[in-house]
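User:
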Amino acid sequence: MLCPDWQLEGPLLALWPYRIDVWREHARPIQTQLTDFLLQVQVHHPVLVGVHPRELVRARRFLPMSIPLVPIRYNDAWPRDIGPIWTHSAAGFCAHDFRFSAWHGLYPNSHDDQRFVRDLCAHFGWQRRTHPQVLEGGALSTNGTGIVCWSRRSIERNNGISKASLMTKQRLQQSFESVIVGQQHLWFETAHAADETGGHIDNIAQFLAPDILAIDADMSATEARTLQQLPSNIQLVELPPTTTIQPLRQDFGTVQRRRGVMPRGIQPLLASYINFVRTPTAVFVPQFGLTTDAEAVRRIKSALPQLTTVPVAANEMIAGGGGPHCLTLPLPALTRY
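Assistant: Predicted structure:
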């Protein structure tokens, strides 16, 4: 069965941002914001930071000693998309290793990202199963009891068949459903235009609990037909609509321009409250300095009063193209670090 985040009891993994062609001011602002976020999480749940070996000394000097580090190679700091999809059976946890296309080519070199799941599993001793399809973790969400939500546009685009025949698209859908076995598969059709990933589900709809699906308020109408397929016991919680923030180009003057890498500070930044992080005991809600920030926190707190709801700054995160959910990956319980 596919594992939702809250069923994974190991640490929440983040990767140390270091790319000067993605992050502004030599990545110091995002490093500071990510550190503050992880310290907020650590109050409720253990954390772990993967660090590229060549950045290990600098990261250790920057991060508090309470945050453990593990050396591992990667190209950019998005473990949700380059990491495994977790399933659990009587045999234990299995890491499903799909291909990665660097979000259909946002940067040219993804060699270390392609090896990430293999290296992660080798380090911690998890079993791994490889798959030929391209799949990013942000493109699906599950409630852990057999319902899986998919982003059709992202998956078709990453697998190079967005303009293919209906039969070819159906075969691709069936290939994913046969790998990620669930009682019910819901394929969402829409995507935010400013979503540089091509339309990940974690900017549209994400399960908060087995019986609660959080959805972008603007998607309730456009995805009405898909949402009607949900069982009657699933409660919908509408969060304030995803919006875009136009960046100031001068704030990104320190980002190094490199051939083949998408330039920063030009495209609108996607601010989605759906990109929250859910641990077993808390929900961490992204905040963007918008008037709707507090309302997003209130709605999640009202839906899950038994959990702690924590607002977390995410303005630097979206400047690199993602949010708290994109920057983290829950792991199974560890016997060693």
